[in-house]
Amino acid sequence: MIQDNFVNRVAIYPGSFDPITNGHVDLVKRGLRMFDEIVVLIAYNPNKVYLFTIEERMEMIREIFSDTKEVKVDSHSGLLVDYLKISGANIILRGMRALSDFEYEFQMALMNRRQTKKIETVFLMSGFKWFYTSSKLIKEVVSLGGTVKGLVPDNVNQMLMQKYNIKNNNNGRE
User: So what CATH class is 10-131?
Assistant: First the structure.
């Protein structure tokens, strides 16, 4: 008989989510088919420059999942494995868009596993609709006056337009 070490099937989904995209949302929704709860963890990296504050990102994500009690939102500025120890979770959920993501994600999974053997990383492939979408690309398009409607949740689109001081006018683009 196989012993179930994952009694409380809580997965931690870490990322900067600056901003969260529909690809991230899709991954959380698909992850809920496997896990009882998912914590969307906004990880702070002092080497990155962010468009949105941690509080703004947390609020946007809470609004998106306001009807889903199985999704929690939190933030952490230290090692991910330390957060997992504190939370009692032992599963990291990660998304992969392309082969280029694999090497980095594989290195991170092995390093996390080296820190503590109790952690498992589960990878989900990005949904085909979101394969090319990244937070960086989203910000770049909006900063140059393009539209990302349909690539991010509506509340995120509104926040992006506010950050870049763009009126609700897409210059005829849809």
Answer: alpha beta
